[in-house]
Amino acid sequence: MRISAFTFIKNGQILGYPFLQSIQSVLNIVDEFVINVGESEDDTLSVIESIASPKIRIIKSKWNDSMKDRGYVYGQQKMIAQFNCTGDWAFYIEGDEIYHENDLVKIKASMQKHQHDSNVEALVFDFYHFYGNGKTYLNSPGWYRSEARIIKNSVRSYAPDGLFWLVLGSNKKGRYPKAKHTGVYCYHYGWVRSEAQMNLKSKKVQKYWGKNYSKIDYSQIDSKIFKEFHGNHPKIIVSWLPEGNEIFKADLRFKINLKHKKYRIMLKIENFFGVDFSKKHYKLV
Fold first, then answer.
1. How far apart, in whole angstroms, are the C-alpha atoms of residue 103 and residue 47?
2. 105-138 burial, b if ≥16 CB within 10 A, otherwise e?
3. Contact 168, 174 (CB under 8 A)
4. Please, which residues bridge with residue 6 across strands?
5. Of 78, 79, 152, 200, which has the most beta carbons under 10 Å away?
6. What is the pLDDT of residues 54-92, one digit of tens each?
7. Which residues pair with 136 in a beta bridge?
8. What are 235-271's pLDDT values in tens digits?
9. Rounded to an integer, what distance in angstroms lies between the CA atom of residue 240 and that of residue 43?
10. pLDDT of residue 162
11. What confidence score (pLDDT) does residue 171 get?
12. Residue 27 DSSP label
């Protein structure tokens, strides 16, 4: 069995991505790591070139800044990297996602277990969406709680955006991949970077969704979706995390809107009936 990991990154340094930690977190279990590096305004490319591993394979690209339709440029860049993967499995890792060293054996075992099962096309992870610091994560049906991050390289798949895959069936219509769960968490740190970095990111990427930039204030959020993290972070990310060991303080004066009220109601129903209303871009088999 051969495993390819892949990602795409642009302006990783100035936008506060822990992309080096992300790459290094899975390097031990993959046979190659394909990295599509977009033309950047910082030293992202040279930093990646400094990784001392023969598994790293770099592709240089230039983003289509005229593509402003629902983040499709992210799908383009994702597929440039995936189409260069040579493994049996393609493991997609975003630049702010980290995998725990204690879970690597389990991740690889899941790929080995389902390698020859034609009914399994992808593998799914649960997600910790950390917010503001390493002590707080989000629990809301408005945030995806699980996602497919590994797909068989023999499957005819494509990405409408950076988040998920569609599989082309015999009728050439897109459908979500058939998947099994790995039983492992992905640690997502995108909302832990500084507010300044998050606002710079928003300024630079909102155009790809046809949207205008609006200032991000971490305190302006419904604290009812906060949960306290009691586990251990991957060792490779600990020094990157901001100091502090308390749950993030949201603005108590923050006024929730109709969408927040809807999610509060959905969360209560979830807790009472043991269901999950969050969006899923896969079908468990």
1. 26
2. eebbebbeebeeeeebbbbbbebbbbbbbbbbbb
3. yes
4. 34, 92
5. 78
6. 999 999 999 998 888 888 999 999 999 999 999 999 999
7. 228
8. 999 999 998 889 999 999 999 999 999 999 999 999 9
9. 18
10. 80
11. 81
12. G
For residue 161, pLDDT over 90 is answered with no
Please spell the DSSP secondary structure of 90-136, one letter per residue: EEE--TTEE--GGGHHHHHHHHHHHTT-TT--EEEEEEEEEESSTTE
Pairing type for strands 226-228 and 136-138 reads: antiparallel
Q: Are 229 and 187 in contact (CB under 8 A)?
A: no
- Give all domains of the chain, ordered by start, each with its CATH number: 1-285 (3.90.550)
Percent of the chain topping pLDDT 70 = 100
Distances from the Cα of 232 to the Cα of 67, 128, 142, 145, 185, angstroms: 40, 12, 25, 19, 12
At 259, give phi and psi (nearest 5°).
-65, -45
3-state secondary structure of 212: coil
